Every structure is written in C-alpha cells, then in structure tokens.
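Page 47, continued from p. 46.
Same chain as before, 358 aa.
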Amino acid sequence: MGHPHPLREIARQAGVSESTVDRVLNGRGGVRAGTAETVRQAIADLDRQRTQVRLTGRTFLVDLVMQAPDRFSSAVRAALEAELPSLRPAVFRARFHLRETAPVEEIVAILDGVGRRGSQGVVLKAPDVPEVSEAAARLVCAGIPVVTLVTDLPASGRQAYVGIDNRAAGATAAYLVGQWLGRDPGDVLVTLSRTSFRGEEEREMGFRVALRERDPGRAVVVLTETDGLDATMRDRVADALDRHPGIRAVYSVGGGNIAILDAFAARGRECAVFVAHDLDGDNTRLLRAGRVSAVLHHDLAQDVRRAAHVIMQAHRALPGGILTWPSSIQVITPHNTPSAPPPGQWPTTAGPAARPPR
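Result:
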C-alpha cells in the first residue's frame, strides 16, 4: 500500500493509533476488517487533500457527519474538499462519516467517537431526534463546534445552521407548481426521505401553506420514510399513482427522482410538473433531458465555506460574531442549467425516457 504520508498523519485522519496503522500497512493481522478499511479510506482522503497535508499554519481537522443518499453526500464531500485550499492561511483537513441509512444509535456512536478522538469541528446532517441532539450537545460542551448543514438541530446548541431557508424553498416550489399547472386539474405528490429531517419537514410545510393560499382546491399526497433511495421510492410512488389517479405533479423534497419518473413511465402517466432539490448529477441530466421542470439549488461550496468560517470563529481564529443566515435559493430550469456540474456531482444514468414536463 504505497503512500507518501507519515504514520501519525494517517492515524490522525483515521482516528486510530499509529501501531494499528502500522499493522494494516504491513499486513500483520490482528486488526478488524472495518478498522483496516478505515485506515485505507484515511489514506485515500489524505491523497485527495494532499495540498493541505504539508502546509504550515493553524490546523483545523473537521469531521463531516451525514445521513443522506450517496449522490448528495458525495456532492457535499467534493465541495468541501474543493474549498479546503481557499481557506489558507488556515489549514483545513476533513474526515468523513457518510451513511445512506443508519439507526439513530449509529449516528450517536459516530458523534461520541468524534468526541473521544477529538476534532476542531463537526459539520452535521442528521435527523432531528433527541438522541442525536443530545450527542451534538455533548460535543459542544466538550469545546467542539457543531454546524448543521441543510437540516437543523436547534435544540443541540450548535453554533450555526448553513443551508437554505427550507420553508421559503417549499413555498417557492408551490409557486412554481401553481404557475405551471394553472387552471388544469391535478393533485401533487410530495416525496420526502424522512420526517425526522427537520429541513424536509419544513419544506413540506412551506409547500402546503403556500399551495393552500394559492390553490386551495388542489390535493397534496405525501410519501415519506423512503430514505430517498431509488428502490424504495420506485415502489412507493407506483403504489401512490395506483391509489391516486389524479396525481399530475411532483415536488421531490428528498430525492430519488429517477425512480419517481420511472414509476410514472411504467404506469403510462404524465408528470406535467416536476420540481426537485439540489443540482447533483442525476438532476443535471434530468434537467437537460427535459424530464424535470426545475431544480431548487443552493451553492454547496458557499455552504461548506461558511461552515468552515463558523468553526474558525468558534476557535477565535476569525473575528466577528457567529450568525446564521440562509443561502440563496436558485431556480434552475432546462434553459439555465450549468454547462458542467459542480465538483463531485458526476453524471449518472437517467433511466428510460418519459414524457417531458410542460
């Protein structure tokens, strides 16, 4: 396993002892398979962050803890790694704890593990449940700043939230759906990954309130607890279409958009309007193909840069008070889609063609 990194750097990145790293690198055994994989992942992280490793200056080793579909956590990871060099003269390095699905106990164990190993800050996307909020609060009490990303945990004592105003995003989606459906009949399907994510719940609430004010007669059908994963979403949407023949529009809060469109196509149903979130690889391709009407996007690079600044402010490495303010909501349509996706947002297969939205 060739690499240019000192044992102490790998050990720090992996959160294990130098002797454990030595055993893994030299194949001496006595190391659990999961720990060995953690060491290998740490080396891969250091390879990607090699421009940061040899720098001198105040060093901030931060932990990104996320429960999200891989398409989104990969985009956040890439945005963070792309922003690290811009934070000089401070030296930022990142460790990653990314899960598509996880029981609450696992997220709590990750946060407690970060607390035991030590960290200069945690960027967190996790469900807003008491156990996770309490684990985040333990980090804050230990002097480890916590910044919530995309979805908030206000009871945790976190230093700040970075991301969009989720209620405003939901209201924006309702405005777009109402404009495009006009006087045509049709119900709206709203899909979430989990209601325990406060940000998704706020998007749904913002959507309902705005749609009720604008178009009180239009019904809303909500699907949740899908984790935003394609296999789950495809089956759940197909069932919803069978039970609700009036559905003609979608507001996708939690992702899985290829699967949603596949379900419409399999039933021979028209999706007249489709509003989604985040300009990841899937949504970029769907926009270019005309299968999604609009994507509500926010600049992930700006979000992670803001999170890094909050962490530095918490350590008094930057002046000024710590404030929370929302990112700008950008409405991306097939006509203003960027020529190339942001870092890490790689294209994927968009699935079979369906009737494009109006």
